[in-house]
Task: structure prediction
Amino acid sequence: MKTVTFYIDDLPCEAEEGKNFVDAAAANGVVIPSLCYYPHINPPLATCRVCTVAIGGQPRAACSLKVSEGLRVQVNTPELIENRKAILELIFAEGNHFCPACEKSGDCDLQHLAYESGITYSRFPHTFVERIVDFQPQRLVIDHNRCILCKRCIEEFVTDQGEKVFSSHRRGSRTEVNVDYDLEAEMSDQELTRAMHLCPVGAILLRGKSESRPFGDRKYDKLESKETIPLDQPIDTSALPLQKKVVATASLAGCFGCHMSMLDIDLGLLDLIELVSFDKSPLTDIKRFSRRVDIGLIEGGCCNSENIENLEYFRENCDILVSVGECAIWGGLPAMRNTISLEACLQEAYLHSPVTENAHQIIPNHEDIPKILDRVYPCHEVVKIDYHIPGCPPSAQHIWKVVQNILFGTKYDVIYPEFKYD
Amino acid sequence: MAQEEFLLNKLWKIQLQEGYVSDKAIRQLSRQYGRSWVDLEGVISFYHFFSRKPTGRFIIHLNNSILSEFGGFPEVLAAFQESTGTRLNHTDPTGTFTLKAASCIGLSDVEPAALINWRPFINLNPEKVHHLIHQLRSGTDLDDLADRPLSDAYPNTDPDKQLMIKTYQPGTAIGKLPEMTPEEVIREIMEAGLTGLGGAFFPTHLKWQSCRNQPEATKFIVCNADEGEPGTFKDRFLLQKYPGLLLEGMITAAFAVGSREGIIYLRGEYQYLLGKLEKTIGQFREKGWLGRNLLGIPGFDFDIRIALGAGAYICGEETALLESLEGHRGEPRPRVYYPTEKGYLAKPTVVNNVETLCTAARILENGYEPYVNPAAPDSPGTKLMSIAGDCHFPGVYEITWGTTIGELLTRCGAVDPYAIQLSGPSGELLPASWVGRKLGLHDLRCGGSVMVFNRQRDLLQILQNYNRFFLQESCGVCTPCRAGNYMLSVQLRKMERGLASTEDLDKLEEWAKLMEYNSRCGLGQTAPKAIIQAAARFPEVMDQHTRTKNAPFDLDLATSAYDRIINELR
Result:
């Protein structure tokens, strides 16, 4: 094979002619993110489209390209980076990706790429389509909530007789990937483990072995990493007069964990007390706003009418409103009910639950009790949100850096280990 | 060569005999084809016309395309529901009727139309539906009730350019073959400037030559008769009117590239044309025009089989069609090989549309000279247009390239036209005021579908109909198309409710462009086209559906479910 010269963003690179472009780029130090691609599948699947690059402005899936002499490919232009980010956000919005409750969290390729892209929230509305978790296979569990339909498993697992072990079913937005129960029963543990690891997300799990490694040991924990996450800086307030700023916080449909994390800023807390005063907040127990507030920090999404009123009240009284944590950003764990009808939820919780006593079978309702919404809404679907800090809970460092940024206009970097969805 | 029956043909037999594909049938197929259960289930569930649950004796597929919608789809559906006693996607308790909707069934000039057990019923209205169901209940034979839709044909206005819609004398075209070499045939096609008339306009001679150049002995000629683009029906017209011409075109192609086997991939919606097509193939065999040493040319062996599609728009994409022929889900292949290199069963394959093949036969018959078009040198020959919608004379028109939009609208008797959709939802949405624009490769390309919309039609309703179509018909393989169509539907619904702000309109456009840029095949790349064009070309209509400021959160709507549940408990 002859070696040829090709160009990535105008930088000359070398590789064997005909080599897959993703591999050739990697060998030259340029990692092109992809979720469906992995070596030795030919022709490549080209399903996830995350690896989209451009030749002369025309989009191409990098995984479907072969290196040739003089090939010029744009990979990391600002437009292509933004485009890649949008595709990842689309994948998040399409599935039900509850990172804090996922066995694969920290070992998940999708999550990792989203971290590296600095995705704080999805620009697309989450679909919250009801998907099943298939417990019928003998040893595998297929969680359709998490499947991104990359087709890796379909392509890779074929019996010696040429029979497919996995296959897509239905089509369009209703497409799902299923496993053949008979063939699954015949597979070795080793093969099943390989299937679980081949899955770029947490859709294929092996019973009894799905437990992730402990925090810190997971594939993408990267505790030592100093890699910075490419984030939008909230707002440049450096021109504003330096005066004592006012902060308010709220906990809507959340667990108060984000507030706990805010308190984790340790010694920063002492600085904070000097520099800000708190208005309406569970920390101060002030119920009504007493003045105009500079920063409102919102934990939790909106699951009832009181959350909505409270959030709108915050928006009216705060200059800058920040969604803190997964629940505020897209619903988080409370949004797990979004795939189920409200009626079924209420019946399960109050009427058919094994712990309800016969005499108390009633769905709570009173004019003084907030009404439950049809689903849990992320804060940005209710009011305008100026910034999002992801995490369950977000790291104290990230919160503190954003608050400092807003208070003093300081620029900041969030490094990889500080940026998490779980 | 012993041939395994096409899996889809086999599934059709089961579907038609049993009314559905049972577990038992899957087990049997699994043994016969050596395919796993999950694999077969994947194939069956991909195609709209195969059912895994028992269906009624009569399966009604009512077309839900935009022309049907404007023609009275809601009323006709209501009439079907009332008279059959079932709902959409259900079977009535007596097991007589199953009611379903279907994407465009190629009867746009006679909408609303439905297929009942895949026989056509056209120009439906509530009275006709009630009468029809009554007769079916009283035992009248379905075939006696079915319509025989033959579209009105309008020959070219220029008498020198009546090249397709004219009398057909069987055998004239292929009668020339014994005197010609394959190279001469390809040159003739090249001189005539024939390009793929399904809408891609790839030069036909290049395709044939490329396939001819392949060293392999086995090559295939595949006719793409999966005309699924909403609004088009010209291929149906050709299949009804000139089935022999199509066969002659395939024979010509086979002669040119050196193929021994041809396959017509006929869309499942057109299976009422199967009988006539098979009969014509039989006649050709009798005459020695198919089979061994055909036309007396020594060593020229060629025969044609028919494979039946089963309700999947994407199978009109040539690589998806090949996948379908091989008995798989109709998912487009990644662009690594051309079908002329590795096509059906990884053998060199020419895939041509019905009209392209018919035209190839006509070129042999007419000679290439009349196809040369001095007025528009890059767009030679003529084109069939299926025109329907708000016009007095819907039908199939033969036009010379270079015809203007204005001339087209006048010819079809358009009534107060406002917008035109060319080449279906994936094509061009343009204002009817663009009368001077010309049809042709140099200006407005058109695969053959023309839908005329008058001033009373709501553009948003049109866009939503297209969006539902693509949601249904996306193969589901790539993220941007599968999820993108859904995201667009959310924004369109917001506009419908009057809750969309100008910011939402910007998002709609931005997301549409994202789909266009990133999708894996033509379907996803073109699905958002109408939205992008509507925003650019009909800003006044889009503005009507948007508000300048963000709408406040609709708390009443979000709590309505809770209120209803509490009320019902009381």
Observations:
- Chain A has three domains: 3-76, 96-206, 245-418.
- Chain A is about 25% helix and 20% strand.
